Protein backbone atom coordinates (compact mmCIF):
# COMPACT_ATOMS: atom_id res chain seq x y z
CA UNK A 1 0.00 0.00 0.00
CA UNK A 2 1.21 3.49 -0.86
CA UNK A 3 1.58 5.61 2.27
CA UNK A 4 0.40 9.16 1.55
CA UNK A 5 2.58 12.11 2.42
CA UNK A 6 1.14 14.45 5.04
CA UNK A 7 1.11 18.17 4.30
CA UNK A 8 -0.22 21.28 5.97
CA UNK A 9 -3.06 23.47 4.75
CA UNK A 10 -0.59 26.28 4.18
CA UNK A 11 1.57 24.03 2.00
CA UNK A 12 -1.48 23.09 -0.05
CA UNK A 13 -2.59 26.71 -0.45
CA UNK A 14 0.90 27.78 -1.45
CA UNK A 15 1.17 24.98 -4.01
CA UNK A 16 -2.29 25.72 -5.41
CA UNK A 17 -1.40 29.39 -5.82
CA UNK A 18 1.75 28.51 -7.75
CA UNK A 19 -0.24 26.21 -10.01
CA UNK A 20 -2.86 28.90 -10.65
CA UNK A 21 -0.24 31.53 -11.43
CA UNK A 22 1.11 29.45 -14.31
CA UNK A 23 -1.63 27.16 -15.63
CA UNK A 24 -4.64 29.50 -15.60
CA UNK A 25 -3.04 32.33 -17.65
CA UNK A 26 -1.41 29.85 -20.06
CA UNK A 27 -4.64 27.96 -20.75
CA UNK A 28 -6.63 31.21 -20.89
CA UNK A 29 -4.45 32.77 -23.58
CA UNK A 30 -4.29 29.52 -25.56
CA UNK A 31 -8.05 29.04 -25.58
CA UNK A 32 -8.66 32.71 -26.44
CA UNK A 33 -6.40 32.38 -29.48
CA UNK A 34 -8.10 29.18 -30.52
CA UNK A 35 -11.49 30.85 -30.37
CA UNK A 36 -10.24 33.85 -32.34
CA UNK A 37 -8.91 31.47 -35.00
CA UNK A 38 -12.36 29.93 -35.28
CA UNK A 39 -14.16 33.28 -35.20
CA UNK A 40 -12.04 34.91 -37.91
CA UNK A 41 -14.41 33.78 -40.64
CA UNK A 42 -17.39 35.38 -38.94
CA UNK A 43 -15.52 38.69 -38.70
CA UNK A 44 -14.16 38.38 -42.23
CA UNK A 45 -17.76 38.27 -43.48
CA UNK A 46 -17.87 42.02 -42.80
CA UNK A 47 -14.64 42.76 -44.61
CA UNK A 48 -15.06 41.38 -48.09
CA UNK A 49 -14.41 37.64 -47.89
CA UNK A 50 -17.95 36.80 -49.04
CA UNK A 51 -17.68 38.33 -52.54
CA UNK A 52 -13.92 37.74 -52.84
CA UNK A 53 -14.26 33.95 -52.47
CA UNK A 54 -17.73 33.57 -53.94
CA UNK A 55 -19.32 32.70 -50.59
CA UNK A 56 -22.43 34.73 -51.43
CA UNK A 57 -24.56 34.24 -54.54
CA UNK A 58 -27.29 36.47 -55.95
CA UNK A 59 -30.35 34.52 -57.02
CA UNK A 60 -32.41 36.09 -59.78
CA UNK A 61 -36.19 36.23 -59.18
CA UNK A 62 -38.49 33.76 -60.83
CA UNK A 63 -41.47 35.60 -62.36
CA UNK A 64 -43.82 36.87 -61.15
CA UNK A 65 -41.44 37.60 -58.22
CA UNK A 66 -39.20 40.64 -58.71
CA UNK A 67 -36.86 40.60 -55.70
CA UNK A 68 -33.29 39.34 -55.93
CA UNK A 69 -32.18 37.11 -53.03
CA UNK A 70 -28.81 36.36 -51.44
CA UNK A 71 -27.75 32.73 -51.09
CA UNK A 72 -25.31 32.28 -48.16
CA UNK A 73 -25.20 28.49 -48.26
CA UNK A 74 -21.50 28.44 -49.25
CA UNK A 75 -20.72 30.62 -46.24
CA UNK A 76 -22.64 28.27 -43.94
CA UNK A 77 -20.75 25.29 -45.42
CA UNK A 78 -17.45 27.05 -44.71
CA UNK A 79 -18.61 27.57 -41.10
CA UNK A 80 -19.68 24.00 -40.50
CA UNK A 81 -16.84 22.19 -42.31
CA UNK A 82 -14.44 23.43 -39.63
CA UNK A 83 -16.33 21.33 -37.09
CA UNK A 84 -16.31 18.25 -39.29
CA UNK A 85 -12.54 18.60 -39.51
CA UNK A 86 -12.53 19.02 -35.73
CA UNK A 87 -14.61 15.85 -35.42
CA UNK A 88 -12.29 13.90 -37.71
CA UNK A 89 -9.26 14.97 -35.65
CA UNK A 90 -10.73 14.20 -32.22
CA UNK A 91 -10.10 10.46 -31.88
CA UNK A 92 -6.48 10.53 -33.14
CA UNK A 93 -6.01 13.74 -31.12
CA UNK A 94 -7.25 12.19 -27.88
CA UNK A 95 -5.15 9.07 -28.47
CA UNK A 96 -1.98 11.04 -29.14
CA UNK A 97 -2.64 13.34 -26.18
CA UNK A 98 -2.63 10.26 -23.93
CA UNK A 99 0.42 8.68 -25.55
CA UNK A 100 2.70 11.74 -25.71
CA UNK A 101 3.64 14.44 -23.16
CA UNK A 102 0.43 16.43 -23.15
CA UNK A 103 1.93 19.92 -22.76
CA UNK A 104 4.35 19.48 -25.65
CA UNK A 105 1.67 17.89 -27.81
CA UNK A 106 -0.71 20.85 -27.36
CA UNK A 107 2.08 23.31 -28.23
CA UNK A 108 3.01 21.48 -31.45
CA UNK A 109 -0.59 21.24 -32.66
CA UNK A 110 -1.12 24.92 -31.87
CA UNK A 111 1.92 25.90 -33.95
CA UNK A 112 0.48 23.92 -36.86
CA UNK A 113 -2.99 25.47 -36.70
CA UNK A 114 -1.48 28.95 -36.50
CA UNK A 115 0.30 28.24 -39.79
CA UNK A 116 -2.90 26.94 -41.35
CA UNK A 117 -4.70 30.13 -40.29
CA UNK A 118 -2.07 32.29 -42.02
CA UNK A 119 -2.50 30.23 -45.18
CA UNK A 120 -6.10 31.47 -45.47
CA UNK A 121 -4.73 34.62 -47.08
CA UNK A 122 -3.61 32.50 -50.05
CA UNK A 123 -7.04 30.97 -50.66
CA UNK A 124 -8.58 31.98 -53.99
CA UNK A 125 -11.99 30.27 -54.01
CA UNK A 126 -14.70 28.89 -51.76
CA UNK A 127 -13.51 25.34 -52.54
CA UNK A 128 -10.03 26.22 -51.30
CA UNK A 129 -11.55 27.73 -48.17
CA UNK A 130 -13.43 24.50 -47.49
CA UNK A 131 -10.13 22.57 -47.57
CA UNK A 132 -8.39 25.12 -45.35
CA UNK A 133 -11.23 25.13 -42.80
CA UNK A 134 -11.31 21.33 -42.61
CA UNK A 135 -7.61 21.05 -41.82
CA UNK A 136 -7.81 23.96 -39.38
CA UNK A 137 -10.50 22.07 -37.47
CA UNK A 138 -8.46 18.86 -37.62
CA UNK A 139 -5.42 20.60 -36.16
CA UNK A 140 -7.38 22.32 -33.38
CA UNK A 141 -9.17 19.14 -32.29
CA UNK A 142 -6.71 18.23 -29.54
CA UNK A 143 -6.71 21.32 -27.37
CA UNK A 144 -10.21 21.16 -25.83
CA UNK A 145 -10.08 17.52 -24.64
CA UNK A 146 -6.43 18.04 -23.64
CA UNK A 147 -7.39 20.99 -21.44
CA UNK A 148 -10.13 18.86 -19.89
CA UNK A 149 -7.51 16.25 -18.95
CA UNK A 150 -5.03 18.87 -17.74
CA UNK A 151 -7.61 20.51 -15.48
CA UNK A 152 -8.52 17.32 -13.61
CA UNK A 153 -4.84 16.31 -13.51
CA UNK A 154 -3.89 19.41 -11.54
CA UNK A 155 -6.99 20.44 -9.58
CA UNK A 156 -9.21 18.94 -6.90
CA UNK A 157 -12.75 18.20 -7.97
CA UNK A 158 -14.05 21.10 -5.87
CA UNK A 159 -11.66 23.41 -7.76
CA UNK A 160 -12.42 22.16 -11.26
CA UNK A 161 -15.55 24.24 -12.09
CA UNK A 162 -13.87 27.59 -11.44
CA UNK A 163 -10.72 26.64 -13.39
CA UNK A 164 -12.86 25.34 -16.26
CA UNK A 165 -14.82 28.58 -16.17
CA UNK A 166 -11.60 30.61 -16.16
CA UNK A 167 -10.04 29.06 -19.24
CA UNK A 168 -13.32 28.64 -21.10
CA UNK A 169 -14.25 32.27 -20.35
CA UNK A 170 -11.42 33.10 -22.74
CA UNK A 171 -14.03 32.56 -25.48
CA UNK A 172 -15.83 35.63 -24.15
CA UNK A 173 -12.64 37.66 -24.12
CA UNK A 174 -11.86 36.28 -27.58
CA UNK A 175 -15.17 37.69 -28.82
CA UNK A 176 -14.61 41.04 -27.09
CA UNK A 177 -10.94 41.54 -28.04
CA UNK A 178 -11.48 39.93 -31.42
CA UNK A 179 -14.31 42.35 -32.17
CA UNK A 180 -12.10 45.32 -31.36
CA UNK A 181 -9.29 43.87 -33.46
CA UNK A 182 -11.59 43.25 -36.40
CA UNK A 183 -12.90 46.80 -36.20
CA UNK A 184 -9.31 48.09 -36.38
CA UNK A 185 -8.43 45.80 -39.29
CA UNK A 186 -11.49 47.08 -41.11
CA UNK A 187 -9.68 50.40 -41.53
CA UNK A 188 -6.46 48.91 -42.90
CA UNK A 189 -5.49 50.30 -46.28
CA UNK A 190 -2.90 48.03 -47.88
CA UNK A 191 -2.09 45.89 -50.89
CA UNK A 192 -4.25 43.04 -49.58
CA UNK A 193 -7.90 42.85 -48.65
CA UNK A 194 -8.54 43.67 -44.95
CA UNK A 195 -9.82 40.15 -44.19
CA UNK A 196 -6.48 38.69 -45.33
CA UNK A 197 -4.58 40.78 -42.79
CA UNK A 198 -6.94 39.48 -40.13
CA UNK A 199 -6.03 35.84 -40.74
CA UNK A 200 -2.33 36.64 -41.11
CA UNK A 201 -2.15 38.56 -37.82
CA UNK A 202 -4.14 36.06 -35.74
CA UNK A 203 -2.34 33.06 -37.25
CA UNK A 204 1.11 34.55 -36.70
CA UNK A 205 0.36 35.46 -33.08
CA UNK A 206 -0.95 31.92 -32.52
CA UNK A 207 2.22 30.25 -33.80
CA UNK A 208 4.47 32.58 -31.80
CA UNK A 209 2.49 31.81 -28.64
CA UNK A 210 2.78 28.07 -29.43
CA UNK A 211 6.57 28.34 -29.23
CA UNK A 212 6.27 29.92 -25.77
CA UNK A 213 3.66 27.32 -24.80
CA UNK A 214 6.13 24.52 -25.51
CA UNK A 215 8.17 25.73 -22.53
CA UNK A 216 5.39 27.15 -20.35
CA UNK A 217 2.88 24.26 -20.20
CA UNK A 218 4.17 21.33 -18.08
CA UNK A 219 3.17 17.77 -18.91
CA UNK A 220 2.14 16.79 -15.36
CA UNK A 221 2.66 17.86 -11.71
CA UNK A 222 5.67 15.56 -11.31
CA UNK A 223 7.62 17.49 -13.98
CA UNK A 224 6.39 21.00 -13.12
CA UNK A 225 9.32 23.40 -13.54
CA UNK A 226 7.67 26.05 -11.35
CA UNK A 227 7.31 23.77 -8.28
CA UNK A 228 10.05 22.60 -5.98
CA UNK A 229 10.35 18.91 -5.05
CA UNK A 230 8.17 19.22 -1.96
CA UNK A 231 5.48 21.15 -3.85
CA UNK A 232 5.38 18.50 -6.57
CA UNK A 233 4.61 15.87 -3.93
CA UNK A 234 1.91 18.08 -2.42
CA UNK A 235 0.44 18.75 -5.89
CA UNK A 236 -0.06 15.02 -6.38
CA UNK A 237 -1.06 14.03 -2.83
CA UNK A 238 -3.71 16.70 -2.45
CA UNK A 239 -5.69 14.95 -5.21
CA UNK A 240 -5.71 11.58 -3.43
CA UNK A 241 -9.10 11.99 -1.78
CA UNK A 242 -10.78 12.70 -5.12
CA UNK A 243 -10.15 9.12 -6.34
CA UNK A 244 -9.56 10.29 -9.95
CA UNK A 245 -5.81 9.73 -10.28
CA UNK A 246 -3.23 11.70 -12.25
CA UNK A 247 -2.00 10.20 -15.51
CA UNK A 248 -1.56 6.83 -17.18
CA UNK A 249 -0.04 6.30 -20.64
CA UNK A 250 -1.51 2.81 -21.12
CA UNK A 251 -4.74 2.57 -23.13
CA UNK A 252 -6.90 0.09 -21.17
CA UNK A 253 -9.43 -2.02 -23.05
CA UNK A 254 -11.78 -2.50 -20.08
CA UNK A 255 -12.04 1.25 -19.62
CA UNK A 256 -12.82 1.71 -23.31
CA UNK A 257 -15.67 -0.79 -22.99
CA UNK A 258 -16.98 0.86 -19.82
CA UNK A 259 -17.00 4.26 -21.53
CA UNK A 260 -19.39 3.02 -24.20
CA UNK A 261 -21.60 1.11 -21.73
CA UNK A 262 -21.91 3.92 -19.17
CA UNK A 263 -25.21 5.79 -19.53
CA UNK A 264 -23.57 8.98 -18.23
CA UNK A 265 -21.40 9.15 -21.37
CA UNK A 266 -24.50 9.53 -23.53
CA UNK A 267 -26.06 11.90 -21.03
CA UNK A 268 -23.11 14.27 -21.39
CA UNK A 269 -23.08 13.94 -25.17
CA UNK A 270 -26.80 14.67 -25.60
CA UNK A 271 -26.67 17.73 -23.32
CA UNK A 272 -23.56 19.16 -25.00
CA UNK A 273 -25.09 18.59 -28.45
CA UNK A 274 -28.32 20.34 -27.43
CA UNK A 275 -26.61 23.33 -25.81
CA UNK A 276 -24.24 23.97 -28.70
CA UNK A 277 -27.01 24.29 -31.25
CA UNK A 278 -27.38 27.72 -29.67
CA UNK A 279 -23.76 28.58 -30.41
CA UNK A 280 -23.75 27.57 -34.05
CA UNK A 281 -27.26 28.66 -34.98
CA UNK A 282 -27.25 32.10 -33.40
CA UNK A 283 -23.81 33.48 -32.54
CA UNK A 284 -22.22 32.20 -35.74
CA UNK A 285 -24.49 34.48 -37.74
CA UNK A 286 -24.39 37.50 -35.46
CA UNK A 287 -22.27 39.50 -37.88
CA UNK A 288 -24.80 38.92 -40.64
CA UNK A 289 -27.84 39.83 -38.55
CA UNK A 290 -26.04 42.99 -37.39
CA UNK A 291 -23.93 43.72 -40.44
CA UNK A 292 -22.09 47.00 -39.80
CA UNK A 293 -18.69 47.96 -38.45
CA UNK A 294 -20.20 49.39 -35.28
CA UNK A 295 -22.17 46.20 -34.71
CA UNK A 296 -18.85 44.36 -34.44
CA UNK A 297 -18.10 46.42 -31.35
CA UNK A 298 -21.63 45.95 -30.00
CA UNK A 299 -21.41 42.20 -30.41
CA UNK A 300 -18.31 42.26 -28.23
CA UNK A 301 -20.76 42.87 -25.41
CA UNK A 302 -21.91 39.27 -25.82
CA UNK A 303 -18.37 38.19 -25.03
CA UNK A 304 -18.32 40.36 -21.92
CA UNK A 305 -21.66 38.95 -20.78
CA UNK A 306 -20.39 35.41 -21.26
CA UNK A 307 -17.17 36.17 -19.38
CA UNK A 308 -18.89 37.70 -16.33
CA UNK A 309 -21.60 35.03 -16.02
CA UNK A 310 -19.04 32.25 -16.32
CA UNK A 311 -16.81 33.67 -13.59
CA UNK A 312 -19.68 34.32 -11.18
CA UNK A 313 -21.02 30.80 -11.69
CA UNK A 314 -17.54 29.33 -11.31
CA UNK A 315 -17.00 31.08 -7.97
CA UNK A 316 -20.42 29.97 -6.69
CA UNK A 317 -19.66 26.34 -7.58
CA UNK A 318 -16.47 26.44 -5.50
CA UNK A 319 -18.22 27.56 -2.32
CA UNK A 320 -21.49 25.66 -2.76
CA UNK A 321 -21.03 21.89 -3.06
CA UNK A 322 -23.12 20.05 -5.64
CA UNK A 323 -24.35 23.28 -7.22
CA UNK A 324 -23.15 22.68 -10.80
CA UNK A 325 -26.36 21.11 -12.05
CA UNK A 326 -28.40 23.93 -10.45
CA UNK A 327 -26.15 26.57 -12.04
CA UNK A 328 -26.40 24.85 -15.44
CA UNK A 329 -30.19 24.73 -15.17
CA UNK A 330 -30.38 28.37 -14.08
CA UNK A 331 -28.25 29.45 -17.05
CA UNK A 332 -30.70 27.83 -19.49
CA UNK A 333 -33.36 30.39 -18.58
CA UNK A 334 -31.67 33.59 -19.89
CA UNK A 335 -30.94 31.80 -23.17
CA UNK A 336 -34.62 30.95 -23.59
CA UNK A 337 -35.60 34.52 -22.70
CA UNK A 338 -33.01 35.98 -25.09
CA UNK A 339 -34.26 33.80 -27.93
CA UNK A 340 -37.80 35.06 -27.42
CA UNK A 341 -36.55 38.67 -27.32
CA UNK A 342 -34.79 38.37 -30.68
CA UNK A 343 -37.57 36.37 -32.32
CA UNK A 344 -40.53 38.49 -31.22
CA UNK A 345 -39.04 41.99 -31.01
CA UNK A 346 -39.05 44.78 -33.59
CA UNK A 347 -35.62 44.79 -35.28
CA UNK A 348 -36.00 48.42 -36.28
CA UNK A 349 -35.24 49.16 -32.64
CA UNK A 350 -32.00 47.26 -32.16
CA UNK A 351 -31.74 47.50 -28.36
CA UNK A 352 -34.14 44.62 -27.61
CA UNK A 353 -32.69 42.04 -30.05
CA UNK A 354 -29.17 43.09 -29.06
CA UNK A 355 -29.86 42.47 -25.37
CA UNK A 356 -31.46 39.18 -26.37
CA UNK A 357 -28.26 38.32 -28.20
CA UNK A 358 -26.27 39.10 -25.06
CA UNK A 359 -28.49 36.79 -22.99
CA UNK A 360 -28.06 33.97 -25.51
CA UNK A 361 -24.31 34.01 -24.86
CA UNK A 362 -24.99 32.68 -21.35
CA UNK A 363 -25.42 29.22 -22.90
CA UNK A 364 -21.63 28.93 -22.36
CA UNK A 365 -22.16 28.64 -18.60
CA UNK A 366 -24.51 25.68 -19.05
CA UNK A 367 -21.92 24.09 -21.34
CA UNK A 368 -19.09 24.60 -18.83
CA UNK A 369 -21.14 23.15 -15.97
CA UNK A 370 -21.84 20.04 -18.07
CA UNK A 371 -18.15 19.74 -18.98
CA UNK A 372 -17.10 20.03 -15.34
CA UNK A 373 -19.63 17.38 -14.34
CA UNK A 374 -18.12 15.12 -16.99
CA UNK A 375 -14.56 15.83 -15.87
CA UNK A 376 -15.19 15.44 -12.14
CA UNK A 377 -17.40 12.36 -12.41
CA UNK A 378 -15.22 10.29 -14.74
CA UNK A 379 -12.35 8.30 -13.26
CA UNK A 380 -9.79 6.08 -14.99
CA UNK A 381 -7.37 7.86 -17.31
CA UNK A 382 -8.35 6.01 -20.49
CA UNK A 383 -12.04 6.48 -19.68
CA UNK A 384 -11.48 10.18 -18.97
CA UNK A 385 -9.65 10.70 -22.24
CA UNK A 386 -12.18 8.79 -24.34
CA UNK A 387 -15.23 10.32 -22.63
CA UNK A 388 -13.75 13.77 -23.13
CA UNK A 389 -13.19 13.00 -26.80
CA UNK A 390 -16.76 11.77 -27.28
CA UNK A 391 -18.24 14.78 -25.53
CA UNK A 392 -16.19 17.18 -27.65
CA UNK A 393 -17.26 15.14 -30.68
CA UNK A 394 -20.87 15.93 -29.75
CA UNK A 395 -19.80 19.58 -29.49
CA UNK A 396 -18.38 19.42 -33.03
CA UNK A 397 -21.38 17.63 -34.52
CA UNK A 398 -23.72 20.20 -32.99
CA UNK A 399 -21.75 23.16 -34.29
CA UNK A 400 -21.37 21.35 -37.60
CA UNK A 401 -25.10 21.15 -38.27
CA UNK A 402 -26.30 24.28 -36.46
CA UNK A 403 -25.56 26.78 -39.29
CA UNK A 404 -27.92 24.75 -41.48
CA UNK A 405 -30.73 25.61 -39.07
CA UNK A 406 -30.58 29.30 -40.07
CA UNK A 407 -32.88 29.66 -43.07
CA UNK A 408 -32.27 32.83 -45.08
CA UNK A 409 -35.86 33.18 -46.37
CA UNK A 410 -37.03 33.42 -42.73
CA UNK A 411 -35.16 36.65 -42.04
CA UNK A 412 -38.31 38.75 -42.34
CA UNK A 413 -39.90 36.63 -39.59
CA UNK A 414 -36.71 36.75 -37.46
CA UNK A 415 -35.68 33.11 -37.99
CA UNK A 416 -38.56 31.37 -36.16
CA UNK A 417 -37.25 27.86 -36.90
CA UNK A 418 -33.85 28.71 -35.44
CA UNK A 419 -35.22 30.08 -32.20
CA UNK A 420 -37.85 27.38 -31.78
CA UNK A 421 -35.02 24.84 -31.92
CA UNK A 422 -32.88 26.79 -29.44
CA UNK A 423 -35.77 27.14 -26.98
CA UNK A 424 -36.60 23.44 -27.28
CA UNK A 425 -33.00 22.30 -26.83
CA UNK A 426 -32.32 24.52 -23.82
CA UNK A 427 -35.59 23.37 -22.22
CA UNK A 428 -34.58 19.75 -22.76
CA UNK A 429 -31.14 20.42 -21.26
CA UNK A 430 -32.81 21.96 -18.20
CA UNK A 431 -34.76 18.74 -17.64
CA UNK A 432 -31.79 16.45 -18.35
CA UNK A 433 -29.58 18.27 -15.84
CA UNK A 434 -32.27 17.82 -13.19
CA UNK A 435 -32.53 14.09 -13.96
CA UNK A 436 -28.73 13.74 -13.95
CA UNK A 437 -28.55 15.34 -10.51
CA UNK A 438 -31.14 12.91 -9.14
CA UNK A 439 -29.36 9.92 -10.74
CA UNK A 440 -25.82 10.51 -9.43
CA UNK A 441 -26.90 11.56 -5.94
CA UNK A 442 -28.98 8.39 -5.73
CA UNK A 443 -25.88 6.32 -6.59
CA UNK A 444 -23.94 8.13 -3.85
CA UNK A 445 -26.66 7.35 -1.33
CA UNK A 446 -26.61 3.65 -2.23
CA UNK A 447 -22.82 3.49 -1.90
CA UNK A 448 -22.98 5.24 1.47
CA UNK A 449 -25.56 2.70 2.65
CA UNK A 450 -23.28 -0.18 1.69
CA UNK A 451 -20.14 1.25 3.26
CA UNK A 452 -18.65 4.35 4.75
CA UNK A 453 -15.41 5.40 3.07
CA UNK A 454 -12.49 4.43 5.26
CA UNK A 455 -9.49 6.74 4.94
CA UNK A 456 -6.92 3.96 4.61
CA UNK A 457 -8.96 2.22 1.94
CA UNK A 458 -9.49 5.51 0.08
CA UNK A 459 -5.75 6.17 0.18
CA UNK A 460 -5.13 2.75 -1.32
CA UNK A 461 -7.51 3.14 -4.29
CA UNK A 462 -6.77 6.80 -5.10
CA UNK A 463 -4.00 6.24 -7.66
CA UNK A 464 -4.90 2.74 -8.87
CA UNK A 465 -6.42 4.14 -12.09
CA UNK A 466 -9.83 2.66 -11.24
CA UNK A 467 -12.95 3.93 -12.98
CA UNK A 468 -15.77 5.70 -11.19
CA UNK A 469 -18.08 2.69 -11.63
CA UNK A 470 -15.55 0.19 -10.26
CA UNK A 471 -14.09 2.19 -7.37
CA UNK A 472 -16.37 1.79 -4.29
CA UNK A 473 -14.77 4.86 -2.70
CA UNK A 474 -15.75 7.17 -5.56
CA UNK A 475 -18.58 9.65 -4.97
CA UNK A 476 -20.20 11.63 -7.77
CA UNK A 477 -20.75 15.37 -7.75
CA UNK A 478 -23.85 17.16 -8.95
UniProtKB/TrEMBL annotation:
<feature type="transmembrane region" description="Helical">
    <location>
        <begin position="40"/>
        <end position="60"/>
    </location>
</feature>
<dbReference type="InterPro" id="IPR036259">
    <property type="entry name" value="MFS_trans_sf"/>
</dbReference>
<keyword id="KW-0813">Transport</keyword>
<feature type="transmembrane region" description="Helical">
    <location>
        <begin position="355"/>
        <end position="374"/>
    </location>
</feature>
<dbReference type="GO" id="GO:0022857">
    <property type="term" value="F:transmembrane transporter activity"/>
</dbReference>
<feature type="transmembrane region" description="Helical">
    <location>
        <begin position="326"/>
        <end position="343"/>
    </location>
</feature>
<keyword id="KW-0812">Transmembrane</keyword>
<feature type="transmembrane region" description="Helical">
    <location>
        <begin position="166"/>
        <end position="185"/>
    </location>
</feature>
<dbReference type="GO" id="GO:0016020">
    <property type="term" value="C:membrane"/>
</dbReference>
<dbReference type="Pfam" id="PF07690">
    <property type="entry name" value="MFS_1"/>
</dbReference>
<dbReference type="InterPro" id="IPR011701">
    <property type="entry name" value="MFS"/>
</dbReference>
<feature type="transmembrane region" description="Helical">
    <location>
        <begin position="266"/>
        <end position="290"/>
    </location>
</feature>
<feature type="transmembrane region" description="Helical">
    <location>
        <begin position="296"/>
        <end position="319"/>
    </location>
</feature>
<keyword id="KW-1133">Transmembrane helix</keyword>
<feature type="transmembrane region" description="Helical">
    <location>
        <begin position="386"/>
        <end position="407"/>
    </location>
</feature>
<feature type="transmembrane region" description="Helical">
    <location>
        <begin position="135"/>
        <end position="154"/>
    </location>
</feature>
<feature type="transmembrane region" description="Helical">
    <location>
        <begin position="105"/>
        <end position="123"/>
    </location>
</feature>
<keyword id="KW-0472">Membrane</keyword>
<feature type="transmembrane region" description="Helical">
    <location>
        <begin position="419"/>
        <end position="440"/>
    </location>
</feature>
<feature type="transmembrane region" description="Helical">
    <location>
        <begin position="80"/>
        <end position="98"/>
    </location>
</feature>
<feature type="transmembrane region" description="Helical">
    <location>
        <begin position="197"/>
        <end position="217"/>
    </location>
</feature>
<protein>
    <recommendedName>
        <fullName>Allantoate permease</fullName>
    </recommendedName>
</protein>
